[in-house]
Design brief:
Blueprint: H1 2-8, E1 10-15, E2 19-21, E3 29-35, E4 37-42, E5 45-51, E6 55-56, H2 58-63, E7 70-73, E8 77-84, H3 85-115
Antiparallel strand pairs: 1-8, 2-7, 3-6, 3-8, 4-5, 4-7
Amino acid sequence: MDEILLEVCENKDFKKGDVIFNQEDKADGMYVIKSGKVDVERDDMVIATLEDGDFFGEMGLMLNEKRSATIRAVSDNLFTHFLSKVAYAEVKNELGAEVTEKALQRYSQTYKNALGES
């Protein structure tokens, strides 16, 4: 996945407190965290923290839906790769299965944590 991302992504950097996108925003792409941390907020509650190597925004991108959560930078500096809808359309056959698998694993773990399971 890394080689493909370097070819088609643009770098986007943020500072602590920056909102990358809000819940219910229209999806315009997905982000891969190069360095830093973000909080995932749903209905004003933090439901997860993501860090180096994690990605977010993939569900809105793949399903063409509004954002399901707000993403806020919580580290002093956040460095990301941004994969736009246009770029995703060019590489989705190569990335699709890997992104889907990781997204499902993460959501499964998030729901288990919410239910108090491990």
